[in-house]
Structures are given as C-alpha cells and as structure tokens.
Amino acid sequence: MGGNLFKLGRLPRHQYLKIEGDIAHFLDKKLGEFYQIPSYYGDKPDFGDLDIIVSSAIPNWEQIRLEIIRDLGIIQYKSIGHVFSTVYQNFQVDYFVVPPKHFESTYNFFCFNDLGNLLGKICRRFNLKYGEQGLAYVFRRDDDNYKKDIILTKDFAEICQFLEVDYQKWRAGFANLEEMFEWAIASPYFSLEPYLKPSKTLENRAKDRRTIQKFIEFLHEKKITKTYQYLKNRDDYLPWVAENFPEAD
To answer: Among candidates 34, 150, 1, which has minimal Cα distance to 100?
Structure first.
C-alpha cells in the first residue's frame, strides 16, 4: 500500500482504471479465484499503486510469478517478504501473497484505503487489534514480558456488528471519502480524543497516508465533537469482549 517503492508518483483515475483492467484480465486466466483487488471509494481521483491479494493456495506461484514478469514485459520488480512488487506501464503493482486462512480478512482490511486503520484505532481502546488477520485480543502477561494476539474472528460482518457499523453499506461501497468517514464515525465507540492530540505514530501515518490526513481535516471541517468515555483499564473490557465472541474461547 502506498506505492512509494519505485518512486513513480500517482496516476489519474482514467489511467489507473486502464491498468487495473489489463491486469485483471490477465490474472483472471492465471489466478482465477485465487486473487482479489481491494475496493476503493467511488470518486477516488488518483492512485499511488495497485494492490492485489493472492492466496498462497494457488499452485505453482513461483512459476506464475515468472510468467507475470515475462508476459507483462516487467523489467523492474522486487520481492520483500510476502510482497512481490512490479512496475507495469510505469506504475507500481503489488502482489500480497497470504495464507488461505487470511485471504479474505486481508482483502477486507485493504479495502477503502485506510478505513481498516481507522477501525483499528477504535479497537485498540478495548485492548483489541484489527488487521490483516482479522480482530484479535491482545493478551499481555502481568510482567509485560509476554504478549500474544488471540484471534476473535476473521468475519468482517461480525467485526462490523461488534463496532455497530453498517456491514451492508460497506459491502455496497462508498461514493466518496466523506461518505466513508461518516460511516466510520457512526460507530458509538468512535472518539475524537486521539485526533485532538495525535501521537507521533499518528502524525507520521498522516504524513505518509493522504486518507489519514483527509480524515483529520474532515473532523475539523465538520466540527466533529463526538467522544466516548472509555474505561481507564483496558483489561476491564475482557468480559464484554468474551461475551461478544464466545466461540473464541
């Protein structure tokens, strides 16, 4: 996400759609049901890269990767961990290869720019973490020398139900950024407080991620004052979390 690896800049919407169409047509034959392209809001004017989620269940990924390079005329490419980054028609295309069990949850997290990060910020106040592997409870031992993420659910519909946001609206998509932001702050657990005095992490993310910048601008322009009175001790939420996700044990 972000498209800064090759320093190629952003593309206007019409050029991006042409590239996405070319790549999708090619991958339909090569990958079939083993890939997904995350959704984006309807009037997004430009793009920094094209993200593609690939399930590692696809047979012969290494061979297919060579075919992508050959058949698409790729000259610049780089592999870093589970990400295979390429340059196609002077535009960055990233393939994120993930285990089958994380295929759908990674796709959901990548949809609509940084929306997943905005939801994750709400979840953290309950000692939870939302990311590519779904929603997890962050267990910490009392001495703080041991930490483990305990997966609660990978089902995004359940996550939306927990945060009390409209899953069907998310599925239908958002016409623009404002509609997407309104959806996020509709959660009764959203609070303006973390954005009033942003942490260094949030400040750095806002510098790198235009959607986060625009969200903060949206909060100021719309004079959003919504807050939620969180408990001081995040561990006190554990019984409530367990009640909402009984199958997580």
So the answer is: 34
